[in-house]
Design brief:
single chain, mainly alpha, His-Me finger endonuclease fold, two-stranded antiparallel ribbon, 4 helices, 4 strands
Length: 134
């Protein structure tokens, strides 16, 4: 837990004599300690949030996700590449049944979602294009 050393630096930016604004800044060591504490809290919260989303939306535990990632060797199930955006692999699932199919990179997940929505139109266009190729 963060504890302040009670040393306050005078905050000259505000140009006021009000006690709250005048003694607002912390010493550099206290600012660093407070910042690191916030980052640790954010990291724990982020991990807990990710676990809750996996459970609620996909019915997966963190262990199940990790097992799938190991089975796929940490790469996308479609393009076999590491996610270029630097994000974790997304969970691909069938929207009608909710069944999880695998882990995909951001690029493939977006394209697959588009294709599922417009598959008939895309196939009709490709067939039409072959019949009437200029």
């Amino acid at each position: 837990m963060y504890e302040s050393c009670s040393k306050r630096k005078i905050n000259m930016r505000h140009g006021t004599t009000h006690a709250y604004q005048y003694y607002k800044c912390r010493c550099s060591k206290c600012r660093l300690a407070k910042s690191l504490e916030g980052k640790k809290h954010w990291h724990k919260t982020r991990i807990a949030h990710r676990a809750a989303v996996l459970r609620r939306i996909y019915g997966l535990t963190t262990e199940n996700y990790m097992k799938m990632e190991i089975e796929q060797k940490g790469v996308c199930a479609i393009c076999s590449k590491v996610c270029s955006s630097g994000k974790v692999l997304g969970v691909d699932h069938d929207h009608s049944t909710g069944r999880v199919r695998g882990l995909l990179c951001t690029n493939c997940n977006g394209k697959l979602g588009w294709y599922e929505q417009y598959a008939a139109e895309a196939n009709d266009y490709l067939i039409f294009e072959q019949e009437y190729f200029y």
